[in-house]
Specification:
- Its main location: membrane.
- This is Bulb-type lectin domain-containing protein.
- It is found in: Membrane.
- It comes from Prunus armeniaca (Apricot).
- The structure is a single chain.
- The protein is mainly beta.
- The chain has 2 domains: 24-76, no CATH class; 81-217, Orthogonal Prism (Agglutinin, subunit A).
- It is built from no helices and 20 strands.
- It has strands at residues 9-12, 15-19, 31-35, 39-43, 49-55, 61-64, 70-73, 81-82, 87-89, 94-97, 105-112, 118-123, 128-132, 160-163, 168-171, 176-179, 188-192, 198-204, 209-213, 215-217.
- The strands form 5 sheets. A 5-stranded antiparallel β-sheet has the order 3-4-5-6-7, with no helix packed on it. Strands 9-14-15-16-20 form a 5-stranded antiparallel β-sheet, with no helix packed on it. A 4-stranded antiparallel β-sheet has the order 8-17-18-19, with no helix packed on it.
- Strand 15 and strand 16 form a beta hairpin.
- The radius of gyration is 19 Å and the shape is globular.
- 23% of the residues are buried.
Length: 219
């Protein structure tokens, strides 16, 4: 019997910003139907129940049950991209893709560590290593890159980071940076790229091309 496999993607200005890696899983024997008006019909045991899927203007895909409650949202399960108003918290991680043009999970992570500080981590099959903040880097070339030298602090417990539409990123560990074209206007995305570099992009509406913007670190 032929087995069909589907990959669910969300596109933001013709660029994939989320893939099905974060979707809730179904047990073996479950069924999934998609009907009119964006309804998902989920059957874990042979009895179908209606779950409505809504794609919000923020780019957040939400699943709503019959009681009109949000039971799942893509903003809680990011892949490699953070959109404006999407939060990065304790148990969420940006994970790069393996290589350009694929959707396999890669080895580079952007996340809060156990000491409440945002780190860039290489998490490969044989070893795992923090590569920022650590020694001199492209982010803090004039310092040794330590948490305190960059004005950040582990003395917080909220583990919350968020970017806004203007291009500002703020974290509870005092990490803050602005896009070089800071201001309301262009669409933006913060992406953990396949090569391990965290990049902020702005959309050029005239060409439809995502343009890399430098990060202006606030110290």
């Amino acid at each position: 019997m032929e087995v069909l496999k589907f990959l669910i993607l969300l596109l933001f200005a013709a660029t994939v910003d989320w893939s099905e890696a974060g979707l809730p899983s179904l047990r073996q024997g479950s069924s999934l139907k998609v009907e009119e008006e964006s309804d998902f019909l989920v059957s874990p045991n042979g009895t179908f129940s209606s779950v409505e899927a809504r794609l919000l203007e923020t780019g957040n895909l939400v699943l709503i049950n019959q009681e009109k409650r949000v039971i799942w949202q893509s903003f809680d399960s990011p892949t490699d991209t953070l959109l404006p108003s999407q939060r990065l918290v304790k148990n969420t991680t940006l994970v790069s893709v393996r290589s350009q043009g694929t959707y396999l999970s890669g080895f580079y992570n952007f996340k809060f560590d156990d000491n409440n500080v945002l780190y860039l981590v290489y998490n490969g099959p044989l070893l795992s290593s923090v590569y920022w903040p650590k020694t001199s880097s492209v982010y803090w070339p004039k310092t040794d890159g330590t948490v305190f030298d960059s004005g950040r602090t582990p003395y917080n417990s909220s583990r919350l980071a968020i970017s806004d539409k203007a291009g500002q990123f703020i974290s509870s560990d005092n990490l803050m940076f602005n896009a070089s074209d800071y201001g309301i206007g262009p669409k933006r995305r913060l992406t953990m790229d396949y090569d391990g570099i965290l990049r902020l992009y702005s959309l050029d509406e005239s060409t439809g091309v995502w343009v890399l913007k430098s990060l202006e670190i606030q110290e």
